[in-house]
Amino acid sequence: MFTFLGCIALLIIGYFTYGKYVEKMFGVKAARPTPALTQADGVDYIPMSTKKNSLIQLLNIAGTGPIFGPIMGALYGPVAFIWIVVGCIFAGAVHDYLTGMISIRNRGAHLPELATKFLGKAMKHVVNAFALLLLLLVGTVFVTTPADLLYVLMDGKVALFLIVGAIFIYYILATLLPIDKIIGRLYPYFGALLLISAVGVFIGLLVTGANIPEISLSNFHPANAPIFPLLFFTITCGALSGFHATQTPIISRTTQNENQGRKIFYGMMIAEGIIAMIWAAAAMSLFDGYNGLNDLLAAGGPGLIVSEVSKMMLGGIGGTLAVLGVVVLPITSGDTAFRSARMIIADYLNFAQRKFSSRLWIAVPLFVISLALTQIDFNILWRYFSWANQSTAVIALFVGAMYLYIAKKNYWVSLIPGTFMLVMVLAYILNAQIGFRLPMTTSWIGSAIGTVILVALFFHTAKKNRALALPLEDDVSNWKKAA
Prior knowledge:
InterPro entries: CstA, CstA_N. By secondary structure, the protein is mostly helical.
């Protein structure tokens, strides 16, 4: 229990210390008008309050990742706690803050546009393809997972295809309508369910005196659970997730002032890390060790763990509310995944989105493709999602490092976690069944060589961009704030 509570305390301290340092180092410009004001269009660029933006940001980025990922990551033992804390403070929250703030400085641009500007034009098509693949996978995965949870919750009394259809209808409306019409209005209620589930399980762990394992040299992780590189693809959203780089620009377009950025971007990632800690601790402590947890996962996957934990901690009614809180997470990420995909395609094609028909032309093909993807085995989809997710995180961290290098600021805060994850991403795809299936030793060697080459290319490009004085932000000098 001391390790668990200490890790949560470290996450909170990280927000007030390292988060404050990153904010100060980046250099907030409170007087600079944000895209919510300069680009206002009544659809995607709409000024909203800090409280509402923070809640939407949390629900956007917190899909099943900070719950399902830590539950599966619990099989690796207490080392999962370390990755959640270190990853969240020094990688995930930095990733989210930089992508959000750099987007604000560049008209609310999405990651493909930012990568094109800061990493070179050759990255434009690559990053667009990566981002769209990731968002389609996220949207599809986050149709099937909440549908399965709801099907179990209703004891199979409602056909699964009807539940899937209802979720798709909601996603279509959330993708097409202005952000303040559905997302802005429903998310406060969804947020309440999320808080009930997380806080309820946390209190339950404390009251019942759950036997949460402490970190020690003897139980750091089970002997049959090698942590490199798989741990970093199992626990993603609770520590570092490239999916967040596709979501922060949604809120960068509704943020009223740059000084709200730390609370919205860095702070909500810390909140997600706390959620991940709670579910990892529950999974480690409530099922008679790793063998019991593994048996339950084999029997019903993470969804069964969620249901069992909720009932054990909160009883029948409270457990039902907790499961609904978990259902909310993928739904509130799936809707914005499709919305983000629409916005990225529109930016790529320079296709204005004020007209409903313009949004429809882009959205319909996305949902048709996603519907087809639901026919593919979930486990295969999840593996590709995990790799695409962390690959996108690497791109976003290198964008942040490039921005800071050109600005002559501490680019290491982004380059170090970016380089670490680059090693993991390359090693994973070289070794994995969905990749090249090379021996692990060969994969590590290939990963090291690839990382050295790509980091060297980064510094070459960075020095050139700094010498050319690449503009870091869009000019808003001619914008006049309405009286």
